[in-house]
Amino acid sequence: MNSIQIETLNNEATAPLPLKVMVVDDTAVNRQILKVFLERLGFGFVAAGDGDEAIEVFMRDRPDVVLMDVMMPQVNGYEATRRIRELSGERWVPVIFISALDRNDNLIDGLEAGGDDFMSKPINFIVLDAKLRSLRRMVELQRRLEETRRRSAAITENIVDGVVTFNLEGLIQSVNPAACRIFMRPADVMLGMHISTLIAPSDHGSSGLSLSADLISVFAHSTGVRNEISGLR
Predict the structure, then answer these.
(1) Spatial contact of 51 and 75, defined as CB atoms under 8 Å apart
(2) Residue 10 has pLDDT above 60, yes or no
């Protein structure tokens, strides 16, 4: 008998978690000023005094937004941002560079390093407030989308029906455990295979369709339509 896990979803409205902002600046006074400013706006706050520490704090505290100084000893803001981008993976963490450097070349370097915006010192706190409010909306949307994706994945992983997704080239993108049991193949073997390898030879020529673009088109444009073919195991 298969064991089915059921996730209980709480539909009660909950207050969104406050966004956590990491301030990276080698000047303690600047960090303290931004700490007071951010906490008055209701943001969480963590800080780092250089690029190396910024990477450590990012890994430990997982901030939602980064305010990054550029000119710092050892690891500068550009290099720290590149490493943070690698560590964040698919999670989008907006980085705003805040620097006394205000030439176009500095802006381009910041964007190429993975930054999302650039502000000059001295800081215009009215503008920074507006930028953070905009970023808060986008980060909260990302949180909701990630929660929806997580819940959908939990359901897909635990249902008894096999679920296989593939792209328009017919290459398998994901399979759930039930599909692995049905087709008697592990997930790492099925991923990247063509969907035709899971279709019985008797259906390869069904309705006069080939297993290339024609068959994929049937699935891609059949929203709400039930298509039945025989699987191969």
Answers:
(1) yes
(2) no
pLDDT at residue 19 tops 90: no
pLDDT of 215 reads 57
Question: Which helix (DSSP H) or strand (DSSP E) does residue 27 occupy?
Answer: none
Q: How, if at all, do strands 65-68 and 95-99 pair?
A: parallel
Asked whether the beta carbons of 111 and 85 are under 8 A apart, the reply is: no
Could you tell me what percent of the chain has a pLDDT over 70? Answer: 80
Are 121 and 99 a contacting pair, CB within 8 Å?
A: yes
Backbone angles phi, psi at 4, to 5 degrees: -110, 125
For 38-108, where are the E strands, in sequence order? 44-48, 65-68, 95-99
pLDDT at 62 over 70: yes
Q: What is the mean pLDDT of residues 221-232?
A: 68
Tell whether the model's pLDDT for residue 211 goes beyond 60: no
Dist. CA 145–CA 95, nearest whole Å: 20
SS3 per-residue string spanning 169-210 = CCEEEEECHHHHHHHCCCHHHHCCCEHHHHECHHHCCHHHCC
Give residue 100's pLDDT.
Answer: 78
Q: Give 120's contacts (C-beta < 8 A, 6+ positions apart).
A: 98, 99, 100, 101, 102
Q: Does 18 sit behind a cis peptide bond, omega within 30 degrees of 0 on the bond before it?
A: no
User: Which residues does 175 contact at the CB level (< 8 Å), separation at least 6?
Assistant: 162, 163, 164, 165, 187, 190, 191
Beta-strand pair 172-175/164-166: antiparallel
